[in-house]
TrEMBL record:
Pfam families: Usp (PF00582). This is Universal stress protein. Belongs to the universal stress protein A family. Residues 157-279 form the UspA domain. Signal peptide: none annotated.
Length: 281
């Protein structure tokens, strides 16, 4: 498996440029084709209160023109950033449909979808919220979620994989193999509470997992952690202690129509993440 096509969602938020730059670095590292997806917002876009001058006789037409011009500006900035940082196979797609539907549709023809963490920095012009969670449950491809704060100037070299032997953890681990091959340090970290028994009969042994990764050219270590605090807090704390720059974890939950229920650990990680998270469901 490799990331031959990487899709990045672009919007008008403050973090869009940082997300695009990270996606471009991954695309160059993996020799991928990069797709910049720009939903125009004609279906679900938000228009700042002062964007349309008062007294306009055709507010709908003026609003559509504003959203189209904003999308074209985002596309232009993306193209300029690619040209300024070196050669790369890429394209830009402007789409008018609902953002979630557009990302899912185009994401299914990609190997990796790059999205941003929910961000409330633009208080006057709120971007779509819940995008990462919805796409994760529906797209059927790995999703790389970029935090709303912090600088990530290189492809990951120190990865932590949250491992509990579950189907979701295995799916995420397999999806992350191309990224893990490029890392110089990979740690599989399991967590349980003090009174919980280890369920070794229902999951591969640590030795099996390390041999599996070794056959993929990945030298990893395995650690078992017993924690009395919240699992998500313990995981994020361990990521910080190890100086990791990527977290790989399974996406837990299910979606039915537009009602999304994420597992507690997944929801908390997506809210408090400090490094990019590569996940799959």
């Amino acid at each position: 498996m490799s990331f031959k096509t990487i899709l990045v969602h672009l919007d008008h938020s403050d973090r869009s440029a940082a997300r695009a730059a990270l996606a471009a670095r991954w695309a160059r590292a993996h020799e991928s084709h990069l797709v910049g997806l720009v939903p125009t917002g004609l279906v679900d876009g938000v228009i700042p209160a002062d964007a349309i001058a008062t007294g306009m006789t055709d507010f709908i037409a003026e609003s559509a023109d504003y959203l189209r011009r904003r999308a074209e500006a985002i596309s232009r900035e993306f193209r300029q950033s690619i040209v300024a940082t070196g050669s790369l196979s890429y394209e830009v797609r402007l789409v008018d449909g609902a953002t979630i539907d557009a990302v899912v549709q185009h994401g299914r023809a990609s190997d990796l979808v790059v999205l941003g963490q929910d961000d409330t920095s633009n208080a006057m012009d709120i971007p779509l919220h819940g995008l990462a969670g919805h796409v994760l449950m529906e797209v059927g491809q790995p999703v790389l979620i970029v935090p709303s704060a912090g600088q990530f100037e290189s492809v990951p070299r120190n990865a932590v994989v949250a491992w509990n032997g579950s189907r979701e953890a295995a799916v995420a681990l397999h999806a992350a193999l191309p990224a893990l091959r490029r890392a110089s340090r990979v740690t599989l970290a399991s967590f349980r509470r003090p009174k919980e028994e280890e369920d070794d009969d229902r999951q591969p042994s640590a030795a099996d997992m390390l041999r599996f990764l070794s056959r993929h050219g990945i030298q990893a270590t395995f650690e078992r952690n017993v924690t009395g605090i919240d699992i998500a807090d313990a995981l994020l704390s361990r990521v910080a202690e190890l100086g990791a720059d990527l977290l790989v974890m399974g996406g837990y939950g299910h979606s039915r129509l537009r009602e999304l229920i994420l597992g507690g650990v997944t929801r908390q990680i997506l809210a408090q993440m400090t490094v990019p998270v590569l996940t799959a469901h």
